[in-house]
Design goal:
It is a single chain. The N and C termini lie close together (12 Å). The radius of gyration is 20 Å and the shape is elongated. The protein has helices at 10-46, 50-63, 65-77, 79-87, 89-122. The protein has one domain. With 124 residues, the protein is mostly helical.
C-alpha cells in the first residue's frame, strides 16, 4: 500500500483516491460540452436568418473556434466554480455529491468483477 492509498478518509477517502479523478474528469467534460453547446445555440438565436447563422459559424470556426475551445477547456477544468456561479453553492454541491454517489455505485458494479480477475492475475 502506498502512502497516498493509505492516507485517511476511511471508505469515502479510499473510493475518491481510487475513482474520484475519473468523476472529476467526467464532470469537466460534461461542463465543456455544455459550454460549447451554449455558445452554438447563442449564435443560432442571435442570427436573423439561417444563412446568417451558417455564414457566421463558418467564419467563427475559421477564426475564433480554436480560441473559444481553449477558453472553454480551461473553464471546464474549474467546473466547480462554473456550477456554483450558475446554480448556487447548495444546488451545485447537491448535484455533484449526488452524482458522485451514482458514479461510485455504477463504477463499483461495473468494475467489481474485473477487479477480482485482475487481482487474481496479479496474485494479490
Amino acid at each position: 500500500m502506498t502512502e497516498i492509498e493509505g492516507s485517511g478518509g476511511g471508505a469515502a477517502g479510499k473510493l475518491w483516491r481510487k475513482h474520484g479523478g475519473g468523476y472529476y474528469a467526467l464532470l469537466a467534460v460534461g461542463t465543456f460540452v455544455y459550454l460549447e453547446v451554449s455558445a452554438l445555440t447563442e449564435s443560432f438565436f442571435e442570427a436573423d436568418r439561417v444563412r446568417d447563422f451558417v455564414s457566421s459559424e463558418i467564419l467563427e470556426a475559421i477564426f475564433t473556434f480554436g480560441i473559444k475551445t481553449i477558453i472553454n477547456s480551461f473553464i471546464a477544468g474549474i467546473w466547480p466554480l462554473v456550477w456554483i456561479r450558475g446554480m448556487g453553492l447548495t444546488q451545485a454541491a447537491a448535484w455533484a455529491g449526488g452524482g458522485y454517489v451514482v458514479w461510485a455505485l455504477i463504477l463499483a458494479m461495473l468494475l467489481a468483477r474485473r477487479e477480482k480477475e485482475f487481482k487474481k492475475e496479479l496474485g494479490l
